[in-house]
Write a structure and sequence with these properties.
Elements lengths: L17 E4 L12 E5 L6 E5 L9 E8 L8 E6 L5 E5 L6 E5 L13 E6 L8 E6 L2 H4 L2 E5 L6 E6 L10 E5 L9 E5 L3 H4 L2 E5 L5 E6 L10 E5 L9 E5 L7 E3 L6 E4 L27
Antiparallel strand pairs: 1-2, 2-3, 4-5, 5-6, 6-7, 8-9, 9-10, 10-11, 12-13, 13-14, 14-15, 16-17, 17-18, 18-19
Length: 289
């Protein structure tokens, strides 16, 4: 199928309408994965990306948009966690592969690329960069890499301060908490404290601003994180925190991780995960649901 440019790719704040399917079987290769770019108007598939098809490649595990070449058009980053892991960066103009980003220190089983988030311009080259989660690094201690969108070079590599937390399972970009001119991040470590989970608010260089721990055994709080608009009226976008089981979820402040609203599902099954997703204004009250 020839490439057709999705119109929403020209709205960097929204990014392309696309879906990742890391379990997709391609040419008999199980869990090879795929990403489909779909029309926001009709839902029709405009283009399919496959990476380099291989068994357990898991292409499409994570997705993020960023302007990696400063052309004003949102590009697409795709995480693949097979082997040492990698991130594939595709042009938003014509769908061509711009580059593949690989770990600076390869670590089989690191699941590098399991989480992705637009890091803004971290190295002052005028191009967006990436936060990349590697929750399996160093025997599931976990790590987050900050990589240049412009050339793929690793800017920094941040490791967990507590062993075995699976730090980097999820990442959400947050405002510049330390006023150094660079965007910062919230990072989930769902295996912390015996599986209760932990979320840390970190500067882009890895300094902890604050953190919170889950309170429910096995809930794995921080399995998923999602950014939302400013719900606390402090001028800073906030975060939805999802869990791996038990139905736990919270809307928390992007400034200090204080709980704004408990979104947990009452009476949820013990194994029910909560995954934050896209939101929009259903009731036309000016606030996205």
């Amino acid at each position: 199928m020839p490439w057709q440019e999705p119109r929403l790719w020209r709205l960097p704040s929204l990014g392309p309408p696309c879906s990742g399917d890391p379990a997709y079987t391609q040419a008999g290769l199980s869990n090879s994965g795929q990403v489909q770019i779909v029309s926001g108007a009709t839902g029709a598939v405009l283009h399919t990306l496959l990476g380099a098809p291989d068994t357990d490649q898991a292409f499409g595990t994570a997705l993020a948009t960023l302007d990696a070449n400063d052309d004003g058009v949102a590009d697409l980053a795709v995480g693949t966690t097979g082997g040492i892991g990698s991130v594939w960066l595709y042009s938003g103009v014509d769908g061509s592969l711009l580059r593949t980003i690989t770990p600076g220190s390869p670590d089989a089983g690191s699941r590098y690329g399991a989480a992705l988030a637009n890091a803004g311009d971290q190295n002052a080259d005028g191009k967006d960069d990436l936060f990349i989660g590697a929750p399996g690094a160093s025997s599931s201690e976990g790590a987050v890499a900050v990589a240049s969108g412009g050339d793929g070079v690793e800017i920094s590599y941040i490791t967990a301060d507590i062993p075995g937390t699976q730090f980097g399972t999820s990442i959400a970009t947050v405002a510049d908490v330390n006023a150094d001119g660079r965007l910062d991040m919230a990072v989930g470590g769902p295996a912390a404290d015996g599986g209760k989970g932990r979320i840390q608010l970190l500067t882009s260089t890895g300094t902890e601003w604050t953190s919170i721990f889950g309170t429910v055994a096995g809930a794995k709080l921080g399995t998923k994180l999602g950014g939302v608009d400013d719900r606390s009226a402090d001028g800073v976008a906030d975060i939805i925190v999802g869990s791996g089981s038990g139905g736990s979820a919270f809307l928390v402040s992007g400034t200090n991780l204080a709980t704004i609203t408990d979104l947990s599902l009452a009476g949820a099954a013990a194994n029910l995960p909560v995954v934050p997703g896209g939101v929009f204004d259903l009731d036309a009250d000016g606030t996205a649901e």
